[in-house]
Design a protein that fits this description.
- The protein folds into two domains: 131 residues, Aspartate Aminotransferase, domain 1 (Alpha-Beta Complex), CATH 3.90.1150.10; 232 residues, 3-Layer(aba) Sandwich (Aspartate Aminotransferase, domain 2), CATH 3.40.640.10.
- Helix 2 packs parallel to helix 9 and helix 12 packs across helix 13.
- The termini are far apart.
- A hairpin with a 6-residue loop joins strand 11 and strand 12.
- About 3% of the residues have low confidence.
- The chain is α/β, with parallel strands linked by helices.
- The strands form four sheets. It has a seven-stranded mixed sheet with strand order 4-10-9-8-7-5-6, with helices on both faces. It has a four-stranded antiparallel sheet with strand order 11-12-15-14, covered by helices on one side.
- The protein is built from 13 helices and 15 strands.
Length: 385
């Protein structure tokens, strides 16, 4: 190892982006398309009329020799209006100084960690399984990560263990708690008990509530933010708004928190094209969010069909994906069987995610979901439980 590199990063299990949706055919070496149901993206691209608007914006308004709008002024204002509207709040609850933009939610997570825990100021708490980037980014910054378990039946955080962890972590006390609402990969929303626990946490702990799947759950804690200056909500344009390629995330928080996040984020962190795409998306939100109801109907069909398999445990979902586990008795057998199903689906053309002791399957288009069910049936027939 080169002597100037941090030795602890050798052991860091970094996030591994999935390969593209094309793979070579073993027969012809001609790329054949796979159904990409592994990263919880929307199955639908932008409508052509919005792409044409984006092309016009690029040609007529974006000067590529100039830096982008580093303050995101118009986009922040538009997002605040959407947050109020979608949360059924009055029009002045959130304004632009309640919003900070990031290059995806990942940059916002990093900014939060820098603002709260960096330099030995504290550690973070996460309940596993959950979104991996909280732990990965914390470790990359040299911040300790305290993990607590979830209930194996309903995936609720073990609140007793979590409370003990906060009480007993002394050297670098827990300064930030990350939760997802609904959680990934398990798809469950926060329970009443979890919400009460979050409300009870002291004000010297920042509570980060990741609502990446809000457009599918239609459940938000935004209305409670004014009463909790130590809460931050994260959202993204990558899921319901169909802009995963543009990498636009945003945070909603108290103005003092936002001002600090603005200080520590990278300057000019969003390209002009991404800003333009997000503005077009939020201005045409009714059109872009039309497929949400179809995706939820398709989710119900997937859950109903897969729940009929003996040996499968399929969880209810409040997101645009489902999570399933195997009921086999032996952990080793479960792991081997999950790997087998994952590989069989991949080889037959459906990409899903093996994570958190189960399989996470993004809800795709009707045709993608039909192919996935057909391929799953074939793979499951050859599985011994």
């Amino acid at each position: 190892m080169l002597p100037f590199l941090r030795s602890d990063l050798v052991e860091l299990a970094a996030y591994k982006p999935q390969l593209g949706v094309y793979k070579a055919s073993p027969v012809s070496d001609v790329p054949t398309q796979s159904d990409k149901l592994d990263t919880n993206e929307s199955p639908y691209d932008l409508p052509i009329e919005l792409k044409e608007k984006l092309v016009w914006t690029y040609k007529e308004l974006i000067e590529t020799n100039r830096y982008p709008d580093g303050g995101h002024i118009l986009l922040r204002q538009s997002i605040s209006e959407y947050v109020n509207e979608s949360g059924l709040l009055s029009s002045n609850v959130f304004v632009s100084n309640n919003i900070s933009l990031g290059n995806g939610s990942d940059e916002l997570i990093r900014s939060i960690l820098i603002a709260t825990c960096l330099g030995g100021n504290g550690s973070v708490l996460v309940a596993q399984p959950t979104f991996s980037m909280y732990g990965i980014l914390a470790q990359a910054l040299g911040i300790p990560v305290v993990t607590v378990p979830r209930n194996s039946d309903n995936f609720e955080i073990d609140l007793e263990v979590a409370s003990e962890a906060i009480k007993n972590t002394k050297e670098q006390p827990i300064r930030t708690v990350f939760v997802v609402h609904p959680n990934s990969p398990t798809a469950n929303p926060l329970t009443a008990a979890e919400l009460e626990w979050l409300r009870s946490l002291p004000e010297n702990i920042l509570v980060v509530i990741d609502e990446a799947y809000f457009e599918f759950s239609q459940t938000t804690l935004a209305g409670e933010l004014p009463q909790h200056p130590n809460w931050v909500i994260l959202r993204t344009f990558s899921k319901g708004f169909r802009l995963a390629a543009m990498r636009v995330g945003y945070s909603i928080a108290h103005p003092e928190v936002i001002a600090t996040l603005e200080k520590v984020r990278l300057p000019y962190n969003l390209p002009s094209f991404s800003i333009a795409a997000a503005l077009i998306a939020i201005q045409n939100r009714s059109l872009l969010l039309e497929p949400v109801s179809q995706i939820l109907n398709e989710r119900s069909k997937l859950i109903k069909t897969l729940s009929q398999y003996p040996g499968l445990q399929v969880s209810e979902s409040a997101a645009n994906f489902i999570f399933l586990r195997l009921k086999a008795k032996d952990d080793g057998q479960i792991n081997n069987s999950l790997k087998y199903l994952h590989k069989q689906l991949k080889d037959s053309g459906t990409l899903i995610r093996l994570t958190g002791g189960g399989l996470r399957i993004t809800v795709g288009s009707p045709s993608e979901n039909a192919r996935t069910l057909d391929r799953f049936e074939v793979a499951f027939k050859n599985l011994e439980l």
